[in-house]
Amino acid sequence: MRRGNRVAKAAGAGWQSTGNILNFCNVGLKISGPTPITNTAALEVRDASVTAIGAGTIEAHTVAFLGTGEGYLKKVSVLTASQRPIKPRPRQLSP
Fold first, then answer.
1. How many structural domains are present in the chain?
2. Phi first, then psi: what are they for 26, rounded to 5°?
3. Residue bearing the bigger pLDDT, 64 or 83
4. Residue 63 within any structural domain of the chain
5. 1 pLDDT exceeds 60?
6. Which domain holds residue 57?
7. Which top-level group of life is the source organism from (predicted)?
């Protein structure tokens, strides 16, 4: 008996996978391969732990949003090799 991508062994005997992984949350996958990837970090966030990342393209700009464990959202502009970074203005504290 077939249901979706899973095959029933027998009534009450559970399910047998057909090889497709339908839910990656419950499966531990080894994705490192035989050679680990090494490189210098493009960004280090020292004042928070990043727990979520989302990215998108807006016109010619790629923007990433980093969610922190403390509940803050950090916006990061991702540059190509031909783009130069824009230096942020120093923050002025109000008295």
1. 1
2. -100, 10
3. 64
4. yes
5. no
6. 45-82
7. Eukaryota
